[in-house]
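Notes for week 9. Today we move from apo structures to complexes. The key idea is that a small molecule is not decoration. When we ask for a structure prediction with zinc ion present, the ligand SMILES becomes part of the input, just like the chain. The input block below holds both the sequence and the ligand string. Read it once before you look at the output, and try to guess where the molecule might sit.
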Amino acid sequence: MVLNESQVIGPTTEDRYSPLVGSTSQVESPRYRCPVVSCHQSWYRHSADETIPHCPIHDLVLIRDSKGA
Ligand SMILES: [Zn+2]
């Protein structure tokens, strides 16, 4: 039996996020995105120790994407 993880995880971890780690330590990684609406830069924060990056295009700090939270 093969479980399709992409269907089990739910809507917040969709898109191109692939759990390459392959462990069950996956917590809810909050997604951050560029505040520019038309910009599609996004990033998942996997650890509270990680610094929120800037959008490489607009040089703006990514904001928490509240959708699906
Ligand atoms: Zn941007």
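Residues 34, 36, 39, 41, 55, 57-58 surround zinc ion (CB under 6 Å).
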